[in-house]
Design goal:
single chain, NAD(P)-bd_dom_sf, Rossmann fold, Quinone oxidoreductase, six-stranded parallel sheet, quinone reductase (NADPH) activity, GroES-like_sf, NADPH binding, alpha/beta
């Protein structure tokens, strides 16, 4: 993309991939994960020097290895979810410390759909607020790519996840993936329904990847000295925050985390990925890939994701 804008700014171009630098690997990609953050970069909500590609997560096979890379070799099945921008590509060079091996039992499509969304759930549930297994929590957009993984991970931990969704179909999907209860916010009052489910109790933690539209609702459901984890802006960024509201609602905590700060080293990345992949291998997390698009149809994929026409994960495929 050479300018910010709608899906029409995305162009297919041909570039040469140079030999990897000493701390890089060249990956021939098999599947690419699509995420809402890609839309933020396309529109300019998040900035990166133009022109640039899009995307941060993919899976494939190592084709070449830089001279200082020790943990990977040619032929390894690998995945990444925190690369420099530009994953929408057939082949590319990626810093080796952002790349992990895919274990047996995990396919390229699954890995590409998991590396950003799955590791997001890992840091939300196991680092930002470490769930112990006896909590009741609220997770907005429970039928989305991150949400369906969160539903399954919560069930695996013994956590009661209350999800929100925009339709009966999406509510049913979240329930099928392990949510304890799901609220159709197009028909029900979320605050009233949560309080009815919990016997009038608010929650120790609320996970909100929606942003502007759910900010007030989320705050209303956090118990005194509880935590609101605002980790996304699907409906637009939260702005004009009055910190006094946190005091008035019970000395609340709010955090705006991001994945990169939780997997800042290869060791931390590998540990998080190992925990995630182990749940996939044990069949406790099944990756729900709701739709696949060819790489050249990335613009259409963006339209459908922004229009909330997708369920589960979306991937771009390569022949």
């Amino acid at each position: 993309m050479e300018q910010h804008g709608g899906p029409e700014v995305l162009k297919v171009v041909v570039v040469n991939v140079p030999a990897p630098q000493e701390n890089e690997v060249t990956i021939r990609q098999k599947a690419i994960g699509l995420n809402f953050i890609d839309i933020y970069y396309r529109t300019g909500l998040y900035a990166s020097p133009l022109p640039h590609g899009l995307g941060f997560e993919a899976a494939g096979v190592v084709e070449a290895v830089g001279s200082k890379v020790r943990h990977l070799k040619v032929g390894d099945r690998v995945a990444y979810g925190q690369s420099p921008i530009g994953a929408y590509a057939e082949a590319r060079n990626v810093p080796a410390d952002r790349v992990v091996k895919i274990p047996r039992g995990v396919g390229f499509d699954e890995a590409a759909a998991l590396m950003l969304k799955g590791l997001t759930v890992q840091y939300l549930f196991r680092q930002t607020y470490r769930l112990q297994g006896n909590e009741t929590i609220l997770f907005h957009a429970a039928a989305g790519g991150v949400g369906l993984i969160a539903c399954q991970w919560a069930k695996a931990l013994g956590v009661k996840l209350i999800g929100t969704a925009s339709s009966p179909e999406k509510a049913r999907l979240a329930k099928e993936n392990g949510a304890w209860e799901v609220i159709d916010y197009s028909r029900e009052n979320v605050v009233e329904r949560v309080l009815a489910l919990t016997g009038g109790n608010k929650l120790p933690v609320v996970y909100d990847g929606v942003g502007k539209d759910t900010w007030t609702t989320s705050l209303d459901l956090v118990q005194p000295r509880g935590l609101l984890v605002s980790f996304g802006n699907a409906s637009g960024p939260v702005e004009g925050v009055n910190l006094g509201v946190l005091s008035a609602k019970g000395s609340l905590y709010v955090t705006r985390p991001k994945l990169g700060d939780h997997v800042a080293t290869l060791e931390k990345l590998q540990a998080a990925a190992d925990e995630m992949f182990s749940l996939v291998v044990k069949k406790k997390i099944r990756v729900a890939i709701g739709q696949r698009y060819a790489l050249e149809d990335a613009g259409k994929a963006h339209e459908d994701l922004a229009g909330r026409k997708t369920t589960g994960a979306t991937i771009l495929t390569l022949d």
